[in-house]
């Protein structure tokens, strides 16, 4: 799958699909008309492009995700850390916490994730 980057409007469109999948393409165009003020051809054009990029599929008029929203965000996060912090998660966390303190709950969640990872 190619490295998929989404603009703001494409992200909202992707969210609509993830929230409603599987969905008939006609029903998707109706939602996009209401929520994005798109005409049917615009919906189909953007859908076709995102299908070509490997994010979604449209099989017999039924639209569904090829990768989940969580998988997509994981890929984007990994790419960001790779490009910005030379792949170093500690460097990312250091930069992140320089301007924003972690809450007790966030620290506990991170510890729990690390503990679970170490057990694997």
Write out key terms for the chains shown:
120 residues; mainly alpha; Arc Repressor Mutant, subunit A; 2 domains; 3-stranded antiparallel beta sheet; 68% helix; elongated
- Number of discrete domains: 2
Helix content: 55-70%
Strand content: 5-15%
Could you list the spans in which at least 5 consecutive residues all have pLDDT below 50?
Answer: none
Dominant shape: elongated
Number of strands: 3
CATH domain fold name of the largest domain: Arc Repressor Mutant, subunit A
- Rg calc: 18 Å
CATH superfamily of the largest domain: Winged helix-like DNA-binding domain superfamily/Winged helix DNA-binding domain
**Which structural class matches the secondary elements?**
mainly alpha
Quick overview:
With 120 residues, this protein is mainly alpha-helical.
Fold and architecture overview:
By secondary structure, the protein is mainly alpha-helical. It folds into 2 domains: 8-69, Winged helix-like DNA-binding domain superfamily/Winged helix DNA-binding domain (Arc Repressor Mutant, subunit A); 88-120, no CATH class. 68% of the residues lie in helices and 8% in strands. The chain has helices at 8-20, 25-36, 40-52, 69-85, 89-99, 104-119, and strands at 23-24, 56-59, 62-65. It has a 3-stranded antiparallel β-sheet with strand order 1-3-2. The longest helix is centred in the middle third of the chain and has 17 residues, at 69-85. The two termini are 27 Å apart. 9% of the residues are buried.
